[in-house]
Amino acid sequence: MSDPGKKAVFLSYASQDAGAAQRICDALRGAGIEVWFDQSELRGGDVWDQLIRQQIRECALFLPIISAGTQARAEGYFRLEWRLADQRTHLMGRNRPFVVPICVDGTPDAGADVPDSFLAVQWIRVPGGDTPPAVVGHVQRLLAADSAAPGRIPAPPPSLPRLAPGSASARENSVAVLAFANLSNDADDEFFSDGISEELINVLARVPGLKVSARTSAFHFKGKSTPIAEIARQLGVAYVVEGSVRKSGDRVRITAQLIKAGDGFHAWSDAFTRDLKDIFAVQDEIAALVAKSLSLKLDLAEHPVREVNPAAYRLFLEGRTIFNRGDTREYQLAIDCYRRSLQIDPNSALTWAWLALPHTLSSGLDANSPVEGYRLGREAAARALALDPHLAKAHASMAFVDILGGWDWKQAEAHLEKAAAIAPGDVETTAMRAHLLTVCGQPERALPLAQRAMEDDPLNYIANYALGRCLFVLGRFEELEAKMEHAVQVNPAGMRMRFYLSVARLFQGKPDAAAQAAEDLPAGWVRCTALACARFAQGRVAESEAELSALKAGFSSQAAYQVAQVYAWRGETDLAFEWLEKSYETRDSGMPLMRCDPFFASVRADRRWLPLLQRMRLTDELLM
Fold first, then answer.
1. How many Cβ atoms are within 10 Å of 167's Cβ, its own excluded?
2. Cα–Cα distance between 561 and 544 in angstroms, integer?
3. Domain 174-307 has CATH 3.40.1280.10
4. What angle, rounded to 10 degrees, do the helices at 525-537 and 495-506 form?
5. Kind of pairing, strands 251-260 and 266-275?
6. Which DSSP string corresponds to 37-80?
7. Alpha-carbon distances, residue 156 vs 94, 103, 134, 325 (angstroms)
8. 249: which residues sit within 8 A by CB, 6+ positions away?
């Protein structure tokens, strides 16, 4: 082991993470960083124990490795190391960099069994310990900051898991609504407190001139002790709304406060006690007070408030929470919750609008045919519009059906324009407009919209997908790789993001790296597609054929378009067109992507391409 010195970093790990720790150590040492880590010296005993304590007292940075393994172990010597490092932070200035947590898998920081000081700083995520140069550079900058003027902590590099950067230049009229705390005795009321926050976001999105951080990013901080100023900095907003909800029977008490992030000043605070049936009215009241405090106006004249049935509303919130998890296996559960809610309150336009989404997305995934799924989705969206033509979500849901199942681009555009006019700050509407422009062959126009959606809601699935798709069709594969690496680190469960990470590497001529990203995908048609292409590029044709066979055998009803992509990538043009025809016949939701899809670059000169594009109404003359 090297001699102790102020510029060394201490790498703390549990035994089951030794391999990941070694990879991190090798990467840091390869850049000339002194690392106190040596498995050969982990002998135990008093002398060894004293040496470890001395190193933790003297190291410049402490790098604890966090994983599912450390979560599962309630005891271990690494926990003593963590405690010693945590104690040392209490002797340091607030802005002195010291603890740099490194997570080597998808373990969330929320609820992690780690010292509080580990949760007060941003985690670095390096799956499996594979340490990119950006992480090494970040550690080097932290070491340099230790010698520089106090209070200057370098920002993590773009490849690290980070939300949109905030600063003193954040727009004055910008706000994030955090998840309201559930103070009710019943833990199941978490649906309700989350729903209050989410609906408040939706109402504030209707305020002209107000930037509202969307749900996905704002809820990222739920259950964490992140300071308000840091939340605002990461989300790029000037104000934060936080509050609490206490429900008792059919009464609810809501407290809310608007905090100016720059100085912690409470610009406004109040408490509201209401009947549950008036919950929409109190949400509008809070939103209007927030807008007034920012010298803005919320016009509610065209959106009359209706009373709600508490039981129906709770089922709606439960369904929305399930749907927002993004797990296709749970779409039917969300549908069941929405339908049970509508049995109680059949005139809820909001519930009908949300019901349209899982019906549309589950087309071909269950017993329903794609056509049946789209029909049910369209019926639900139409019912929502009939009940409330001024509901932005109803227009957005109908546009969603038009794009995926109706292939009616002009009608989708009309509904998205109405949704944007009603709720100009709605991130998902902005992202869907970007996606529609990309579908229609206008990715250059789509890019600014997709970027704006990502700035407003960096963790939003639809915004990430819209930006990823746009960069893909523009051929900006290197930029796509960087964006998707970031998205995967922030949200390891993001299946589409991992797919685009794989194809970004594939189209850069990096088949081994593409295969590695594909291998990280969960079993299913997305993994089969990515691996079939990557294995072929690696020259492992038999393995590519095996993945393609698995794709056709298990998922042909829902992934015919992806089978066509694989055949086109492999240069098998006739088979690519055979499966494109199948995709058209089954109304595969991938077909709207075909016009600009780089996978089909090699077949666009074929005489069969233009007629198919015309049938999809995706030629220039049909789009005008």
1. 8
2. 17
3. no
4. 10
5. antiparallel
6. --GGG---SHHHHHHHHHHHHH-SEEEEEE-HHHHH-S--HHHH
7. 18, 15, 8, 28
8. none
Look up tokens 């932290």; give the residue. Answer: 142
Pick left, alpha or beta for residue 335 (phi over 0 → left; psi -120 to 50 → alpha; otherwise beta). Answer: alpha
Which one of 1.25.40.10, 1.10.1200.10, 3.10.560.10, 3.50.50.60 gives the CATH number of domain 310-424? 1.25.40.10
CA 349/CA 379 separation, integer angstroms: 12
The pLDDT tens digits of the residues spanning 372-392 come to 888 999 999 999 999 999 999
CA distance 14 to 209: 50
**Which residues are within 8 A (CB) of 275 and not within 5 positions of it... i.e. 6 or more apart?**
250, 251, 252
Per-residue pLDDT at 344 exceeds 90: yes
Q: Give residue 2's pLDDT.
A: 45
pTM, full prediction = 0.65
**What's the count of helices (H) and strands (E) in the chain, helices before strands?**
28, 11
Compute the C-alpha angle 360/361/366, nearest 5°: 95
Q: Which residue matches tokens 């690392």? A: 35
Q: Which burial class, exposed, middle or buried, applies to 166 when counting CB atoms under 10 A from its CB (0-12, 13-18, 19+)?
A: buried
3-state secondary structure of 238: coil
Rounded to whole angstroms, the Cα distance separating 319 from 216 reads 16
Does residue 245 have a pLDDT over 80? yes
Tokens of 87: 């104690």
Do 335 and 374 contact (CB within 8 A), yes or no? no
Instruction: Give the tokens for residue 522.
Output: 């969960």
Instruction: Evaluate whether 402 touches 377 at the Cβ level (below 8 Å).
Output: no
Of 508, 568, 506, nearest in space to 535 by CA: 506
Find out whether 293 and 271 touch, Cβ atoms under 8 Å: no
Delimit the domains of the chain by residue range.
9-147, 174-307, 310-424
581 has a pLDDT exceeding 50: yes
**What is the b/e burial string over 405-441, where b = at least 16 CB atoms within 10 angstroms of the residue's CB?**
bbbbbeebbebbebbbebbbbbbbbbbbbbbbbbbbb
Please determine whether the domains at 9-147 and 310-424 fall in the same fold group of CATH.
Answer: no
Q: Return the H-helix or E-strand segment holding 338.
A: helix 331-344
Q: Could you identify the residue written with the tokens 């519009």?
A: 385
Q: What is the DSSP letter of 99?
A: B
Tell me the CATH number for domain 9-147. 3.40.50.10140
Asked whether the predicted pLDDT for residue 359 surpasses 70, the reply is: yes
CA 516 → CA 510, 520, 530, 531, 561, distances in Å? 10, 7, 10, 9, 23
For the segment 142-148, the average pLDDT, to the nearest whole number, is 67
Q: Where are the alpha helices (DSSP H) in 457-593?
A: 461-473, 477-490, 495-506, 511-519, 525-537, 541-555, 560-569, 573-585
